[in-house]
Amino acid sequence: MSTKPFKNGRGVDKPFCSPFTTPHRNDDDKGILIDAPRASKSEPLKSLSMKRLFEETPPRKRSRSSTENDNDDRISEEKNKVLYRSDLESLKERIREKEVSLAALKTSLLYRKKNEDLEGAIEKWIGGCQAALQDYQEHLRERNGQNVSMSDILSFFDITPDKVCYSVDDDTFSPRKC
């Protein structure tokens, strides 16, 4: 049994080269030539291998050994961990302070709401007391025909003038807020 070679027998042992990526030229058999831009027309064409020989390769940077890199990485990781811990602790402390201030604000708001109701009731009580004392003073004036001062009435009932917002100097009631 005989084996038939491929149609293009010369390229059987060569790796596949796509015609779409590199165009075939007729002078491929003679060697690879590159059309490089020439400074003058008298300069000959250079082959690819010659061009590669004369190209300067950039100098390589000295690479440190892997142990040095590992040590540097460990040191930087430890520094970062210390920094992260200190930042975390400071943030936790700030959060605690904010929570305490928030709790204080909430309690003051709660007391303010409770106090608003209480203050409203106190103002109502003071207004009622003032009106009752003035009515009593008018009643005594009409009944007995004599003027009785408010300080006499307050002392008779043993009421301190501050409790009903009474000003002894002016002999009048002050506004609701005392």
From TrEMBL:
Annotated signal sequence range: none
Region feature Disordered, mapped onto this chain: 1-79
Answer whether the UniProt record assigns the keyword Oxidoreductase to this protein. no
Q: Which GO terms describe its biological process?
A: double-strand break repair via homologous recombination
- Tell me the Pfam families matching this sequence: Mei5
Any Gene Ontology CC annotation:
Swi5-Sfr1 complex
Q: Which GO terms describe its molecular function?
A: transcription coactivator activity
Q: Where found?
A: Nucleus
Similarity comment: Belongs to the SFR1/MEI5 family.
Name the principal localization, coarsely classed: nucleus
Q: Where is the composition biased (Basic and acidic residues)?
A: 24-44
| The entry's keywords | Coiled coil, DNA damage, DNA repair, Nucleus, Transcription, Transcription regulation
- What this protein is called in its record is Swi5-dependent recombination DNA repair protein 1 homolog
